Predict the structure.
Amino acid sequence: MNLNSELKALEELSSNAKQIQEDMLEEILRSSANTEYLRRFLHGSSDKELFKKNVPVVTYEDVKPYMERVANGEPSDVISGEPITQFFISSGTSGGKQKIYPLNNKYFQKRIFIENLRNSILSKHIKGVEDGKREEVVSIFVPFACSLIDAIKFLEIHWKELCNNIRSGRVSEWITDLGCRDSVSKVLGVPNAELADKIERECGQTSWEGQMSQCIPILEFYSSKLPLVSLNYSASETLFGVNVNPLCKPQDVSYTCVPNTSYFEFFPVDEGNNAQVVDLVDVKLGHLYDPVVTNHFGLYRYRMGDILQVTGFYNKTPQFRFVRRKDTVISVHIEKTTEEDIVNAVNRVTTVLESAGLMLMGFTCKSDMSTFPGHYVFYWELKPKNFDGIVKLDNNVMVKCCCVMEESFNILYRRHRRKYGTIGPLEIRVMQQGTFYSLMEYFISQGAFAHQYKTPLCINSPQGLAILEDRVISQFFSDKSPPR
């Protein structure tokens, strides 16, 4: 497809979302009604209304045994009417456990379509972006923003050694992996003093500001006025949608659902467990939903656990913003602090850190029940905005950070913290620089993929916590209860 045909396809899909979705479900049922999983509910029928009436809305634990059977060698028709060609393994950092999801050729066809579509949208707004690398890098793409931050942080630490390698044309001796050495040696080629000098001039500046959710403030520091673009929203379960306004602020991103990737239903979040799922075109503006996905790959009425809010419509197709993960909360009493609460609190506290010349490079948190009353613990990795590498912590600033975060939490937290004393003072533990890199290495060693990895917002892994605790250099507590 060329640029115009892809954008035309988006107009057609979004204008006919209802019919596209009906056709999608019919196609999936025609192919998979006789799978072992669906046969229990449909008895071989491909009737769409029977599907909605009889097939239950499920979570991963409900379908895990079927996934594992096929992954262990049983026929694809246990779950899918089309051959399963491979399995996708989730990172395990969002919910704490890795999950496996089936894939087949339909997935890759849809993935190519989404990638071409998002590239066409981006090319429409930014000229030359499709040209890739010229004299200078035109764009950098990563699946998760934190991956780019990790790469920049690594470059900050090792740029001098990189320059030496380029200047000499030789790889550092401590890099012992033969495959890595061979690949890098081919890129290095012969000594290149001119390139080494150029990199040295850029990286040797006193501050890297202007050279390059919680990642946004850090990326804005490095990127200066360069656009930060979130092109699409994809999950392990489905390719969901694209951002038709790529130059909007990262905080304002909404994704237009692409109705030919899966069959979508939505579970209303605010209406209790007795709520009924609704079709894609029947969602309401401003309401919160958990997507329920049926696809060609073996998932049927699968509840994703992502909380999305309807922000508008593109033609007849709704647009959503990602709010939080459904199951990512911390609690020490009866309060529930969500992912959105945590991110909002961290965003508020960045202004306090900036006034002290500090940047928050990464964080995670846990509920600490080893004290009475229990309290929240936040692990922070900080970096000075100037480039001397020395983090100077002012007790008043850090205590204020604790208080500002507590003020940002919901009324139930504040009430039980202030009035009843059933929640203890919030604690911030500052860690050595490089700690989150070590945490990433641990999760990768346990099977997570580097390109998928993202720092868990709330951590419950004993081994991961041990890595954090071993690198704590300072602790601070809020010194007053938050207002009501």
